[in-house]
Predict the structure of Electron transfer flavoprotein subunit alpha.
Amino acid sequence: MKYKGIWTIAEAEDGRIKEVSYELLTRGKRLSKKLGCELTSILLSNNISEEQAEELILRGADKVYLANAPELEHFIVENYSNVLIELIKKYKPAIILSAATTSGRALMPHVAIRMHAGLTADCTELDIEEDSNDLLQTRPAIGGNILATIKTPEHRPQMATVRPRSTRPAQVDYSRQGKGEIINYQYNQQLFDGRVERIAFRNDAEEDNIQDAEIVVAGGKGLKKKENFDLLNELAGRLNGVIGASREAIDRDWLSYPHQIGLSGKTVTPKLYIAAGISGAIQHLAGMKTAETIIAINQDPEAAIFKVADFGIVGDLFEIIPEINELLEKEGVK
């Protein structure tokens, strides 16, 4: 049987499908259109109804394999890996995409090793090579200083994890109602590994905060020293936003790594992104260019950040940011 088709690994938590599942469908639709093949979403969870799974169809999937089981309610890599590998052996997808989330970064390497498949982690771009139809997987390398494009021409399935928030979620298209197929997968109970038990889960609030924020105020080398981030902290506080930073600022130890935005940091898609003293290196732009509205403040009118900005202010941030804070205070924004 020939390997064909594209799979995306959907994620669910507390009985709800996570937004990153729809981001993967955006990627999958582009690739499946180029290959002229079927797009399938795999959802391993518990207590997910067919009505909920239907949203994956409305957002672009041609088929959904839905496996509900108490053993799949919480992510345990052995259980998820066993079920996914059984599906792979039976249906032989050519390409499998997962989000580079905590679970995706555990599941995909586990599956790739067992299937002797190629895997590229933390991709920011995906494409199809015209002559070979191989998956082209682009990701940061050498500390984020270059972008490497990788392919696995001799092994199937081709597997990749994709950086969350690096693309927009696929939109609901109600014209697709009734056009897809949801298959309740009848798994083998022996696939569940009882050696591992989930005891508890602890969330790192600082780690997730910046990616979930609707407003991000970010600073770069132009702030000159750590203490000057107080200006941005004040602005972020008034806007109910969070603080981000370029790699330059992180490398200078002005902020901790969870605040870093870019290829070697986080990817964010806030409603508002304010970049102060950030020149706009390609590595940084890759982590924030999907923000809805971008405001850039920089003394250099030729700074690359202005190419992606919706609004640009050419000037001294040490004059502009205090003025903005003062105006917000006058408007009663505290």
The two ends are 64 Å apart (CA to CA). DSSP finds nine helices and 17 strands in the chain.
